[in-house]
Amino acid sequence: MILLKVVLMISIVVLAYNNNISTCEAIWIEVGSTGVTKCVSEDIKQNVVVIADFSLVNLEDVSSQLLPVLSIKVTSPYGNNLHHQENVTHGQFAFTTTEAGTYFACFWVDEGHKATTSVTVSLDWRTGIAAKDWESVARKEKLEGIELELRKLEDAVDTIHQNLIYLKTREAEMREVSETTNGRVAWYSIMSIGVCITVSVLQVFHLKLYFRKKKLL
């Protein structure tokens, strides 16, 4: 029974690890003609390594005179500039997150490009375990075979644990914001009802005074 539980736990970790690795597959982005900006974003916690490679695809049939060039800008959740390149067809950027939140990578075609058709950008965005150079780790720590795979699983478990803690923290923050908002809405509702009652009472007194002056009461 214990062996079955251990096997089940290892299977779950392997599945989670494989799912995590699959998220680092390259994506293709259609960037419009000059003046159009296309951005991709990801919510990342603090102290996470991010490595990305980007390149234009299907350039074989494009003449050198009409070869499109890109500009790229990577920004942090607070708007800090992490990477900026102009007039490139490919490149790479890397950084370690210093703040938790949504990170943006924006692409646009430089104004010197005369073509009116859109271009396709291949972006290979890797974070956490997927961004680690396992060959260097294996050489440095002299790991191979099962030892290396176990090390990967160990890091995967640690990453999953850290992500769960991060999600729990974000949930607590959002719950606190929601409770604060609900409390303010309740107070505003009570104040609105109080104002309505006060205005109604004042209107009644005003009408009584008016009718008395007119000797209708």
UniProtKB/TrEMBL annotation:
It comes from the Eukaryota. Residues 37-152 form the GOLD domain. The chain crosses the membrane at residues 185-205. The keyword Transcription does not apply. SMART domains: EMP24_GP25L. It is a single-pass type I membrane protein. InterPro entries: Emp24-like, GOLD_dom. It holds the Pfam family EMP24_GP25L. It is found in: Membrane. Residues 1-16 form the signal peptide. Belongs to the EMP24/GP25L family. This is GOLD domain-containing protein. It comes from Daucus carota subsp. sativus (Carrot).
